Amino acid sequence: MIAAAILSLGAAQIAMACADASSAANPSGTKSTAARHAAGGAQAKPEPGNKASPDALPKKQAAGSSAAEANAQPSPAPAAAPVDANGYSVTISGGYETDPADHGRPVALIAAALGVPAETFRQAFSGVKPAGADSGGPTTEEARANKAALMKVLAPYGITNDRLDEVSDGYRYNGSKGETWKRTPAAAIAIVENGVLKGVKITNAGAGYTSAPTVVVTGPGGKVTAKTEIVFSKDLGMNGSLKAITLP
């Protein structure tokens, strides 16, 4: 009975997260579908109810409570880039785009954290039936069914119930409250030799990027947009981090 109760709670959280996300991304109340491009791999526990938009994954909370509140963070506002002694500054913006089909859910991060392809996570999530936005959460039986649907696809990849919960908690958020999944902004500085821009050095790789951010180097001679590359990882603290910045 204890095991059943735990499963029910996990599924309920997933369903609640989904409802919150879809209500934010889909004001009409339509249910959102599984999410975006995968990359890398890692562990994470996406919870069943997160089928809605911006709410990534649910946490262990009772139905009716805000599933995303604990770990969600407000969207970070772009910080003013400091200007160095040579008159150069590096601005990093964007990098949080998701596939429209995912309704705001950061599938690339979730799948990478779980260590499975994005399509595999989408397949697993397709079996989840989130509760309606005003339903107060799924019933015990619905929660159990949702959890079973997820684990049926993910368990063969070595993903445990605990890992699924961990990842779900890491990317859970309530889009209807203007929250986003956890993000750490990256930072970089210009490499200048004899007054000439030679490159860009990453000083903080950041985390939580789902797409390559835009990097603009501004100096005495004008602005240059650099090419960026991100990398995914099973380590939530490094998942979706900036790997390289290259000048054109």
Provide a concise account of the structure shown.
The chain is α+β, with helices and mostly antiparallel strands and 248 residues long. The chain is built from 5 helices and 8 strands; from the N terminus they run αββααααββββββ. α1 (2-25) crosses α4.
What brief labels describe this structure?
248 residues; alpha+beta; 2 domains; four-stranded antiparallel sheet; two-stranded antiparallel ribbon; 26% helix; disordered N terminus; signal; Lipoprotein
If you had to describe this structure to a student in words, what would you say it looks like?
Keywords: Signal. Residues 22-83 are annotated as: Disordered. Residues 1-17 form the signal peptide. It comes from Cohnella rhizosphaerae. It is a single chain. The chain has helices at residues 2-25, 107-114, 118-125, 140-154, 161-170, and strands at 73-74, 89-93, 179-180, 187-193, 196-204, 214-219, 222-231, 241-246. It is α+β, with helices and mostly antiparallel strands. It folds into 2 domains: 2-72 and 105-179, no CATH class; 89-97 and 182-246, no CATH class. The longest helix has 24 residues, at 2-25.
Give the helix/strand layout.
Blueprint: H1 2-25, E1 73-74, E2 89-93, H2 107-114, H3 118-125, H4 140-154, H5 161-170, E3 179-180, E4 187-193, E5 196-204, E6 214-219, E7 222-231, E8 241-246
Antiparallel strand pairs: 1-3, 2-6, 4-5, 6-7, 7-8
Helix pairs in contact: 1-4, 2-3, 3-4
